Amino acid sequence: MSKVKVTYIPAFDDNYIWFIHGLSEKHAQNQIIIVDPGDEIPVIETIEALNYTPQAIFITHHHGDHTAGVSALVKKYQLPVYGPANENIPQISNKLSQQQETPAIYFPLMGLTFNILDVPGHTKGHIAYFGHQLLFIGDTLFAGGCGRIFEGTAEQMHHSLSKLLQMDDSTLVYCAHEYTRDNLNFAQRVEPENLYLKQRIEDTQILRQNNQPTVPSSLQLEKQTNPFLRFEMDSVKLAAEAFAGHPLNTPAEVFKTIRYWKDTLD
Ligand SMILES: [Zn+2]
Questions:
Q1: Ligand 1 center to residue 66 CA distance, Å?
Q2: CATH number of the domain encompassing residue 102
Q3: Residue 109 lies in a domain
Q4: Which of 106, 110, 205, 230 has its CA 20 to 30 A from that of 254?
Q5: Any bridge partners for residue 16, and if so which?
Q6: How far is the CA of 195 from the centre of ligand 1 (A)?
Q7: Tens of pLDDT, residues 31-82
Q8: With contact defined as beta carbons under 8 Å apart, do 28 and 55 qualify?
């Protein structure tokens, strides 16, 4: 389990804005990195109420619900803005992509380092931040689901999600939306016999009834229950073939079919 403290601010209907805190001593813990601030107002309120010192902004992709608060925060706190090299976001001061040397980002006073993954599909330049067993994945992977494919192709999204299968099970996945209940309803259509999924649906209901976030989740739980990471499983392949009405020959085709299947329901 990661030692890094991460807190959150709810924004809009179902967004999460994440604060990554510095390691160990109290001074560093009040230093924060702000992830995907779609709205500056609750961010500034929290910073002032809790006496935090913002150090930087991380952006995963260009959508307004992840970036609309950036300009106001930069103006107020003079922060560096890290973000995807392959998207047109004018506020970015540090452009990042996976090709860069590791670690890509280093905050010595906070004791934090992060690497970058290119995860196109939802948008064409979407990146994720990975360090200290934490994964800030934006709208690429959701708890129990994955982002819609707006700019990229299903093949790109499949390739992006395949990268996550290589990562350690203990990785904590911080996505940007509370979509979990809806996602798990779809997952159950795909894999009605999945016992991990049944348990997760129960656990999720309890969390939401108590107004608790279902994020972060472990990558292990996602590998066990998220159909968009389970395109190599026979159960998911069979369900996708039943939906498509014909055989599917590759895991990428299985992924593409279940993404399309969910799109038809949303
Ligand atoms: Zn988005």
A1: 7
A2: 3.60.15.10
A3: yes
A4: 205
A5: 10
A6: 30
A7: 999 999 999 999 999 999 999 999 999 999 999 999 999 999 999 999 999 9
A8: no
To which H or E segment does residue 27 belong?
helix 26-29
Do the domain assignments include residue 1? no
- Asked if residue 67 belongs to a domain, the reply is yes
Q: Which domain covers residue 67, as residue numbers?
A: 6-265
What end-to-end distance do the CA atoms of the chain give, in Å?
A: 34
E strand residue ranges, 24-143: 31-35, 53-58, 81-84, 94-96, 105-107, 112-118, 127-131, 134-138, 141-142
123 CA distance to ligand 1 middle (Å): 7
Distance of alpha carbon 152 from alpha carbon 251, whole angstroms: 18
Domains of the chain: total? 1
pTM: 0.96
CA 12 to ligand 1 centroid distance, Å:
13
